[in-house]
Specification:
alpha+beta; 7-stranded mixed β-sheet; 346 residues; single chain
């Protein structure tokens, strides 16, 4: 399943408890010491908004815990902020302060300003996403059956074999598929000499193996004859590690040597593979694991939830609406921002 790449979405913030904080920040920014706008008066706020200074209750059972000039401060506000702050008295003080700021903003005519209305629409979009999507899709069990099944199909087998990551140094042997190789006996002796030159048997890095290879092989075949992973030089050194299972798509002798190594940071003795004599370096591994379906869904939930949100938005929000775009005004605005002359590309 692909990850969403579109950035064409309204900016929303998850978490219903953030609404009170958003409103408090909004009022604090636009309500303190700001003069009334001198522009033509904006249109009145929508009829379904509460009157200035009146904060609606969270539900029918909400209780008044304080008043400011007769306007209520609700228990739900204190409960939400108290959960964030861990201090009920501080939460109560914040909610009272928020009501004071809201009333001050209303007295200054800010409640109906275009800036406030734009911010309110952004908050409404955030609350919609929280209530209509995020609160309903909290765990894999909340995903539709087809999304769950598609996730499990993409996940693949639930029984994961051990995977090991390896690099190697190979002394190539003359034969099919190999150019510039050495005779078998000489190749084996050179591989053994490199192995014997390692500074130990555990705690090794690939750099140790490469250093030993150059120290031993350069005088024999020359530095120019030590190449990358392809068998076109007497000695090949793998540049990048690769991962395989015991029965993966690799030479069986190579896999047997890799999986016989006791721990990460060890190197196999010279092992004959179809191309030559290999020194296999064990660089990393992922242990075997058996997943349940629910564990697999949980491991993919964050990604799948993001993808499901895209589907939800298209089918529940965007479908049936006539969206038309005119980029002309946008381009003009961009020219103003960048300072490009009118009529020229920014």
């Amino acid at each position: 399943m692909r990850r969403p790449t579109s950035s064409r979405r309204i900016a929303v913030r998850p978490g219903a408890r953030r609404l009170g904080r958003e409103l408090l920040v909004l009022v604090a920014v636009v309500g303190c010491g700001r003069e009334a706008p001198t522009e033509p008066p904006p249109p009145p706020p929508p009829a379904d908004l509460p009157p200035p200074g009146a904060t609606p209750p969270a539900d029918d059972g909400d209780l008044v815990v304080a008043t400011v000039d007769g306007q209520p401060v609700w228990a739900s506000c204190v409960a939400r902020r108290g959960a964030d702050l861990g201090d009920r008295d501080a939460a109560l003080a914040e909610c009272v302060d928020a009501e004071l700021l809201a009333q001050a903003a209303a007295a200054r005519g800010i409640a109906a300003s275009p800036e406030t209305q734009r911010e309110l629409r952004r908050i409404l979009a955030s609350v919609l996403v929280e209530r209509a999507f995020e609160e309903r899709v909290r765990s894999p069990a909340d995903l539709p059956a087809d999304v769950r099944q598609a996730t499990l199909t993409a996940f693949g087998a639930l029984d994961w074999p051990e995977m090991r990551e390896a690099n190697y140094v190979r002394v190539n042997v003359d034969g099919p598929g190999v150019t510039n190789g050495l005779p078998d006996g000489e190749a084996r002796a050179l591989a053994q000499a490199i192995y014997d030159a390692l500074p130990g048997r555990t705690g090794l890095t690939m750099a140790h193996l490469v250093e030993a290879t150059h120290a031993v092989a350069d005088p024999v075949v020359g530095a120019a004859k030590i190449g990358g992973g392809a068998p076109t030089q007497p000695v090949s050194v793998s540049r990048d590690p690769f991962r395989t299972a015991r029965d993966g798509n690799v030479d069986p002798a190579f896999a047997a040597a890799l999986f016989a190594l006791p721990e990460v940071g060890t190197v196999s003795p010279p092992t004959r593979t179809q191309w030559g004599w290999d020194l296999v370096y064990f660089s990393d591994h992922r242990p075997a694991q058996t997943w349940t379906a629910e564990e697999a869904l949980a491991s993919e939930f964050v990604r799948v939830r993001q993808e499901y949100f895209e589907r939800w938005f298209r089918t529940e929000i965007a479908r049936g609406h006539d969206v038309r775009v005119d980029v002309g005004p946008l381009e003009a605005a961009e020219r103003l921002v960048t300072g490009a002359p009118t009529g020229e590309a920014p």
